[in-house]
Amino acid sequence: MVTPDETAAPRGRWVLRLTGSGGHAPASRPPLVAQARETLGAGALGWAVDIGHEMALRIIEEMPDFAGGEEALRTLRMGAESSVLTGLLVVVAGDAGAVRAPQEALTGDRDFVRRGIPLDLVLRGIRIGHAMTSQALMDAVERLVPEPERTAEVRYVSRLLFAYVDGFSSVMASEYLSEYDRWVTSAAAERAELVRHIVEGRPVAAEQASATLGYPLDRHHLAMVLWHEPGVDAPPSDLQRSASRLLAGSGCGASLVIPYGAASVWVWAAWRTLPAEEPRLPAPGPGTRVAVGTFAEGVAGFRQSHHEAGQTAELVRSASGGGTDATWYADVAVAVMLSQDLDLARAFVRRELGPLAADTTAAAELRQTLAVYLASERSLANAAKVLHIARNTVAYRIKKIEARTGRDLRHRRLELECALRLTEVLGREMTGES
């Protein structure tokens, strides 16, 4: 609690005047976001979201063990942002014991255990977050608090944050150790560790590994990655049930489901002989997405199909909305390979498409027409049939495209089609402002 001399005037109320950029959506769960919006206001909520995002990026930069694609960043953001929000709630309440460690951070703790991130790095991340939050609040005091009151406010905030982080660190360490004990003593841990060895390319004895996994590695494999969309508050067990539903009618002879992190699962299905066609997968369910690799055989195929599914999942996560519940690597392979460096991919699209790369309905219509026209071997009549419009309309649009881009569509067709494919799959990630 604060000391009596600090209770004469409400301390910390200037926090309610903080404002954010609005550039990032909250990563925390809806209950905490609602509490923060009600208690702190939309401005302070946005400020905390910004600090949490910056904090996650800093932690990954200083400790690459926390990296791991979009999902890993989202989990880290959720924990960092929730700790900042909770810190602000502590400052407004004036009592470090009035607010508990956020559930989002404890979920991240469990994720770190399953990904093999050691406790000392987790605690170091907490120290980095504390330092960043403290510095950001001290900067805010300089801006928002009149000179005569600044010293008292700095002491007030520093004391509360120190007490909060001290308790927060203890809870995180305790939760980490409890989860670690549960995890390492389970058969799931052994199977997950073996799977990681395989997908990382380490040598394994296929027959012994198959026995440990309860899954035949010498067959034809089809790998999948399932995950919950941001904002979906559901346990990994829901994803495992979704995976079971997906595989129920697939015709596979065996399957393997491995939880990965706090919000995704890795899945493999095996066939003795290669199926004549891809299995038809039902929709995975509301708020759930699935990325699917291609068929491949043996231990190398187990790894290859998973790599394809994982890269497809990263592509879908980086896309700006839209898309379907299930995405097959075979349908987006070109976009996956071309988008390994998004900055280069974006520059490539704008260089090849020029004004057609704009994020407008009119530009999207011209891109669609051009893609169909090229796929129809530049036949106006065939393109018109596919698009269900008049031949003269296709001709008009093609002339407009040539006039606006200043290029001959007979040249650099491969580059044109690749640029169009990127915009189709990645949407505003390619056509929006960088």
The CATH architecture assignment of the largest domain turns out to be Orthogonal Bundle
Outline: flat
Number of domains: 3
Mean pLDDT: 86
Spans of at least 5 consecutive residues whose pLDDT stays below 50 are 1-9
Describe this entry's structure for a reader.
With 434 residues, this protein is α+β, with helices and mostly antiparallel strands. The protein folds into three domains: 4-184, Globin-like (Orthogonal Bundle); 205-337, Alpha-Beta Plaits (2-Layer Sandwich), CATH 3.30.70; 341-431. Helices cover 61% and strands 8% of the residues. The protein is built from 17 helices and six strands. The chain has helices at 30-40, 42-62, 69-93, 103-114, 119-144, 147-184, 187-199, 206-213, 236-248, 298-318, 329-338, 342-353, 361-375, 380-387, 391-405, 413-426, 428-431, and strands at residues 220-228, 254-260, 264-271, 288-292, 296-297, 326-328. Strands 1, 2, 3, 4, 5 and 6 form a six-stranded mixed sheet that branches. Strand 2 and strand 3 form a beta hairpin. Helix 13 crosses helix 14. The longest helix has 38 residues, at 147-184. The protein is flat, with a radius of gyration of 26 Å. Residues 1-9 have low confidence and may be disordered.
